[in-house]
Amino acid sequence: MKNIISLIFITFLLNCCAQKNEFDIKEIDATIATLETIDSKKAYLDNISKEDQKLRKDQGSKIIIEFGDNSNEHIEFMKRLNQLDSLNYLKVDRYLLKHGYPNKMEYGQEACIAPWMVIHHSNSIEKRNKHFDLLYSAYKDEDLDYNAFSLYLGRTYKMIFNQRFRTNGNRTQNEEIDDLIKELGL
User: Fold this and answer.
1) Considering the entire predicted model, what is its pTM?
2) Model pLDDT, residue 116
3) Which of 26, 37, 63, 133 sits between 20 and 30 A of 172, alpha carbons compared?
4) 3-state secondary structure string across the chain
5) How far, in Å, CA of 89 to CA of 117, rounded?
């Protein structure tokens, strides 16, 4: 019952945003401007992370299993998911502009990976590349681990070249990251 109520609320929220045909940037900026403490920033990012994963975990596979991959139900689910991803991207984009990338020591793991997760879910190469410098700095500062950063770069590579990045097995993790960055021209 709780999942159904959550899904109805998310659907309502997304439908409201879709009817406006854009998200209210001023409202998002106003919310972000109130985030003055580490705890409030952490809560904001944790919430984005939970929203991002909740819809994916609770509904996606169940809909495919029950109705099929090309069903109307799955198509509608993907529309809701894309709307949520767009809203979350806007929230993260505006947050990063104001506050920068969170560090793991102060914010914790979930809040620290929230920006990466949202950017990683973007299907826009331009949006993915926009925050490359922040993600790369987070990786170098060990606020983002190798697996997350290489997944982000690898997916970007696949989106551009329509194939997975291949490297020989004798490369270190840092060398693989450097190879991907060079191939992507970042």
Assistant:
1) 0.80
2) 97
3) 133
4) CHHHHHHHHHHHHHHHHHHHCCCCHHHHHHHHHCCCCHHHHHHHHHHHHHHHHHHHHHHHHHHHHHHCCCCHHHHHHHHHHHHHHHHHHHHHHHHHHHHCCCCHHHHCHHHHHHHHHHHHCCCCHHHHHHCHHHHHHHHHCCCCCHHHHHHHHHHHHHHHHCCCCCCCCCCCHHHHHHHHHHHHCC
5) 10
Q: Is 116 exposed, middle or buried (0-12, 13-18, 19+ CB in 10 A)?
A: buried
Tokens (6 digits) for 142 = 């060990």
Residues 6+ apart with CB under 8 A from 115: 45, 92, 95, 96, 101, 102, 131, 134, 135
> How many angstroms separate the CA atoms of 144 and 153, rounded?
13
Domain boundary assignment for the chain: 2-7+37-144
pLDDT tens-place string over residues 10-31: 444 445 444 444 678 999 999 9
Structure tokens at 3: 């999942």
